């Protein structure tokens, strides 16, 4: 049984990335039944792109397309909540605007995963860097007993056995995931205390898990992710300050869980600095 699907995307400038993201989603098979895009006050022509060419392409693909154009940056949490209020799908996806499709059938794979595993509330793909050799950007998220974050598999080869099988995880990054409408109706909106961004997705995963749902990493679906593009160059908030502030809220709220879960030791959670490429350097990565 095919589930109806909604894909939610928030854009804030970075027009070339948004265009690549949406066009790759519209070239995938199947296309979602509904796409809701929330633009957070872009000034680089993104709104015109979204309201004209992308709308036309979505209409041609038979996709129900909605654009919410905010006059300023409402924050990613608020923007996604605006979109969730309009989402009609039985399964609802979050996708960052710096994402692109690698697995043509990504939506079918993640949707089938939810159908085949009734206890799973959220399923997420293997995220890859969008340039050769297409190493892993994130294969699920782990939290240490002290609350440090580990992006599993970061920088490792795509075919690393440890990250080549589905497994339950503590968290996923909302750069891309698919969740049940039933979960959304159960636990509600993203917590806007985490605006404009950072830790809202980990908080949502812990809320889901506290409510009895499982979180699953599914490497059979793969997506490309241009790392940190959605916040890079933003002048309306201090990224480091917001990360520290929101991290403190997350740790205080969920220490009672992650301190007892046997997550990785702190020394395994050190951020691995890698040489990154932007869209001009990487070009359009291939869909398979």
Would you summarize the structure shown here?
The protein has 288 residues and is an alpha/beta fold.
Provide keyphrases for this structure.
two-stranded antiparallel sheet; alpha/beta; Spore Coat Polysaccharide Biosynthesis Protein SpsA, Chain A; 12 strands; 288 residues; 10-stranded mixed beta sheet; single chain; globular
Structure description:
It is a single chain. The protein has helices at residues 15-27, 46-51, 53-60, 76-84, 106-116, 181-187, 200-210, 239-258, 279-282; strands spanning 5-11, 34-40, 64-70, 91-96, 99-101, 120-128, 136-138, 141-143, 149-151, 167-168, 176-180, 214-225. It is α/β, with parallel strands linked by helices and 288 residues long. The strands form two sheets. Strands 1, 2, 3, 4, 5, 6, 7, 10, 11 and 12 form a ten-stranded mixed β-sheet that branches. It has a two-stranded antiparallel sheet with strand order 8-9. Helix 7 packs parallel to helix 8.
Overall morphology: globular
H-E order: EHEHHEHEEHEEEEEEHHEHH
How big is the Rg?
Answer: 18 Å
Portion of residues within helices: 25-40%
CATH class: Alpha Beta
Distance between the termini: 24 Å
CATH-defined architecture = Alpha-Beta Complex
Q: What is the multimeric organization of the chains shown?
A: single chain
> Helix/strand-derived class?
alpha/beta
CATH superfamily: Spore Coat Polysaccharide Biosynthesis Protein SpsA, Chain A
Mean pLDDT: 96
Tally of distinct domains: 1
The largest sheet, given as strand count, sense and whether it forms a barrel, is: 10 strands, mixed
In CATH, the topology is named Spore Coat Polysaccharide Biosynthesis Protein SpsA, Chain A
Strand content range? 15-25%
Poorly predicted sequence stretches spanning 5 or more consecutive residues: none
Number of strands: 12
